[in-house]
Amino acid sequence: xxxxxxxxxxxxxxxxxxxxxxxxxxxxxxxxxxxxxxxxxxxxxxxxxxxxxxxxxxxxxxxxxxxxxxxxxxxxxxxxxxxxxxxxxxxxxxxxxxxxxxxxxxxxxxxxxxxxxxxxxxxxxxxxxxxxxxxxxxxxxxxxxxxxxxxxxxxxxxxxxxxxxxxxxxxxxxxxxxxxxxxxxxxxxxxxxxxxxxxxxxxxxxxxxxxxxxxxxxxxxxxxxxxxxxxxxxxxxxxxxxxxxxxxxxxxxxxxxxxxxxxxxxxxxxxxxxxxxxxxxxxxxxxxxxxxxxxxxxxxxxxxxxxxxxxxxxxxxxxxxxxxxxxxxxxxxxxxxxxxxxxxxxxxxxxxxxxxxxxxxxxxxxxxxxxxxxxxxxxxxxxxxxxxxxxxxxxxxxxxxxxxxxxxxxxxxxxxxxxxxxxxxxxxxxxxxxxxxxxx
Length: 440
Known about the structure:
By secondary structure, this protein is an alpha/beta fold. The protein has helices spanning about 10-20, 35-40, 50-60, 70-75, 100-110, 125-140, 160-165, 175-185, 200-230, 235-245, 265-275, 285-305, 335-345, 355-360, 375, 395-405, 420-425; strands at about 1-5, 25-30, 65, 80, 115-120, 145-150, 170, 195-200, 315-320, 350, 365-370, 380-385, 410, 425-430. The protein has 2 domains: about 1-200, NAD(P)-binding Rossmann-like Domain (Rossmann fold, 3-Layer(aba) Sandwich), CATH 3.40.50; about 210-440, NAD(P)-binding Rossmann-like Domain (Rossmann fold, 3-Layer(aba) Sandwich). It contains 17 helices and 14 strands. Helix 1 (about 10-20) crosses helix 3, helix 9 crosses helix 11 and helix 9 packs parallel to helix 12 (about 285-305).
């Protein structure tokens, strides 16, 4: 089938490349000429494991192209996916839909026959109705359908998620559109990926509800971790005991510095605003968002305490900047709030991340960036492990201790064994793995 993907950000690029790998004919379209030129030269603008090879393979096969001319490349498409950004709007946190609306108008003006217009971007409930209104106003004569097909991609595992999904949600009541979408996803039949057909508004809300629920699980276990520290319990044991209940499950029950990234912070705020607007406020999600923001900045207090009550004029080494491993995404990363709080406390911050330093440099100032993890900790008064990249899981601890000015490690991801760290002579601080001494 012929597919046009409007928007070549994270979702659009991954989706377009995967659709091409299914055997479809895909044009990825973006107004950013520099991005399109770079892609046509083989330069991938984001870090996602396996994406560069996937793109190269399908470009070479002639199934995947990158274009700036929307009008020319939407014509004749069986389906046009809208995968443009929906950032949080300044002031109220609601999703900014201006790019979606502009794309819908441009698509309407370009289409020359029946097509399914698919919102792949994460959008609030009712956006599909507005897209349909915009298209119909621009082209009253056009034969089309508007479908919601939210993405559920994890950064760092997006290709696996796209090709082996838990579910594919398709929001439409139009039978012809259902058949087109079934054909598009037909290559996943052997994987038995369930296609869940719903109403359009139900599909839109499913995305927000899923992300809000996962954000709630993270925030819940973080608060349980705080209780564990006070009563001398181990949050990892508690989480394991909870997760063995198949009604709960073990995923997202990992205590840490709070959630970040391109989805959870933005989507929880958008859901809160939608709920308020329709007169059904979500107090749980409101609290989750507020608690998470407080937690990220509050992690600096652990560093201050480990350094004897003051970090003024001390050097703190931050290991890991991105909100999770295997991505270069710095959006709402816990490291940003942590670094700001450390700097407010008078500390000098040195940092290292395998992929995130280029983006971090545009978001925080006054940070020295190191060549590797060992360079980062050399002469530092404390090291803080923020993002659990695999490399950080297997550090040479004796070498680490010898390079630090003081053997202080704050492990915000519970990577290391507390007994081993203390046996090596570290002042070691983790998250939620309390000791009996804590209650004495």
